[in-house]
């Protein structure tokens, strides 16, 4: 009779950017424990990121609440499982409430000044730290192709970030789109303008500036569909945002703008 597969629980960020930067933990766990089956606990927005990982068997969604109910719901699911490993990147005490052979918990006070990827390496005790990687799946690739609707080459622009201090002004994004499309080297290129829920107003000027060469990818894909779209980009330009981290994680040539 075969032994059951070792089980690992990964509690990761609900924010897209941090969830992407921490995604290398999955490959690290697979190398550390061949045959491991991974359960990811995260927020609803970042949950689709993990569909393409063969080792991820379950994604448990932690919905925001004001009374701690998400942790109670997570504990009810996690307690019956004898975990080989629990990795908590939220820095909570949750790992100590479940049965686990090994616990690794990110303490932000111990990684001050480190990049998120470097902090992950510190938590796991590995060097070099595991690089972010987000594989897409067939459904995400089909959704991305339906949005693009035509062959490339593609320039992907993500003109909106989560906070104003990380967002380049909309009029500069519009001017950038016009200038790039006027360059002879980009003749025949199309522009995919990508943004998430609630970001249309900030992205519309860039889409309008692209004219008939622009494709509207604003709030039309979940985050893994966005990853599949970015896989097809010959160049990505974006703010310091989750989309920029996602672009780098899928291997697209990426230029991220830092500062207002």
Architecture overview:
The protein is of the alpha/beta class and 260 residues long. It folds into two domains: 7-124, Glycogen Phosphorylase B (Rossmann fold); 138-257, Rossmann fold (3-Layer(aba) Sandwich), CATH 3.40.50.2000. 33% of the residues lie in helices and 22% in strands. The chain has nine helices and ten strands. The protein has helices at residues 16-21, 24-32, 69-78, 116-124, 138-148, 170-182, 200-210, 223-231, 242-249; strands at 7-11, 37-42, 56-61, 83-88, 100-105, 154-158, 190-195, 214-218, 233-239, 254-257. The strands form two sheets. The chain has a five-stranded parallel β-sheet with strand order 3-2-1-4-5, covered by helices on one side. α6 (170-182) links the parallel β6 (154-158) and β7 (190-195). The chain is elongated and about 60 Å long. The termini are far apart. The relative contact order is 0.14.
List the helices and strands and how they pair.
Layout: E1 7-11, H1 16-21, H2 24-32, E2 37-42, E3 56-61, H3 69-78, E4 83-88, E5 100-105, H4 116-124, H5 138-148, E6 154-158, H6 170-182, E7 190-195, H7 200-210, E8 214-218, H8 223-231, E9 233-239, H9 242-249, E10 254-257
Parallel strand pairs: 1-2, 1-4, 2-3, 4-5, 6-7, 6-9, 7-8, 9-10
Helix pairs in contact: 5-8, 6-7
- What does the radius of gyration come to? 20 Å
- Put simply, the count of helices is 9
CATH architecture of the largest domain: 3-Layer(aba) Sandwich
CATH superfamily of the largest domain: Glycogen Phosphorylase B
- Placed side by side, the strands forming the largest sheet appear as 3-2-1-4-5
The CATH topology name of the largest domain reads Rossmann fold
Provide the structure class: alpha/beta
N-to-C SSE series?
A: EHHEEHEEHHEHEHEHEHE
Q: For the terminal residues, how far apart are their CA atoms?
A: 60 Å
Helicity, as a percent range = 25-40%
């Amino acid at each position: 009779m075969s032994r059951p597969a070792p089980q690992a629980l990964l509690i990761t960020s609900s924010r897209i950017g941090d969830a992407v930067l921490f995604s290398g933990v999955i490959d690290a766990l697979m190398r550390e424990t061949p045959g491991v089956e991974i359960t990811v606990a995260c927020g609803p927005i970042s949950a689709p990121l993990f569909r393409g990982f063969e080792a991820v068997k379950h994604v448990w969604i932690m919905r925001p609440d004001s009374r701690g109910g998400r942790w109670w719901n997570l504990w009810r699911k996690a307690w019956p499982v004898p975990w080989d490993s629990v990795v908590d990147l939220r820095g909570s005490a949750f790992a100590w409430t479940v049965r686990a052979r090994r616990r690794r918990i990110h303490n932000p006070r111990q990684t001050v000044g480190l990049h998120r990827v470097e902090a992950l390496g510190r938590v796991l005790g590995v060097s070099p730290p595991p690089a972010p990687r987000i594989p897409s799946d067939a459904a995400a690739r089909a959704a991305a192709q339906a949005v693009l609707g035509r062959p490339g080459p593609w320039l992907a622009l993500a003109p909106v970030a989560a906070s104003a201090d990380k967002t380049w002004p909309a009029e500069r994004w519009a001017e950038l789109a016009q200038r790039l499309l006027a360059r002879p080297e980009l003749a025949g290129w199309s522009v995919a303008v990508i943004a998430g829920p609630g970001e249309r107003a900030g992205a519309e000027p860039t889409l309008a500036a692209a004219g008939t060469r622009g494709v509207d990818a604003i709030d039309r894909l979940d985050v893994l569909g966005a990853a599949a779209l970015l896989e097809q980009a010959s160049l990505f330009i974006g703010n310091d945002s989750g989309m920029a981290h996602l672009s780098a994680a899928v291997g697209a040539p990426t230029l991220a703008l830092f500062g207002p």
